[in-house]
Amino acid sequence: MLPEALWAINTSYRRSTGKTPFSLAFGTEAVVPVEVHATTCRTASYNPQHNEQRLTLNLDLIDEHRSQAQLRNATYKQRMARYYDSRVKHRSFKVGDWVLRKVSLATKNPTEGTLAPSWEGPYEIVSICRPGTYRLRGSVGHTLGHPWNV
To answer: Which among 35, 77, 101, 130 is placed 20 to 30 Å from 142, CA to CA?
Structure first.
């Protein structure tokens, strides 16, 4: 018997696929342990021979079941990407503009902790490599080694 928290994870429907992970793996829905001991419509109408026929049919159709989940997942990802792209604010800069650069994990000083500044700079845009990618020069005059994306 699965722990209750793990059971909830395995039997919950995923929004992206519309299926449970259990049904994608085994081709049928799981019976909750509480349902086995309690009389429900599902357990009252249990017929072993009919159940075996349905299980073999579900296993035969598992490929279609998984392909439907894959199509639904792809549609979900497209919808999410469209939503994200609609909310992105595109920015473009010109040579000579001054900008701040967001501190990344690679450039963050680990000794400063959580109160470290989130931005560093100012930097001057020296050249445009391609749209959205710029070469930066610090206020002291040193040019950064690689281009930065907006």
So the answer is: 130
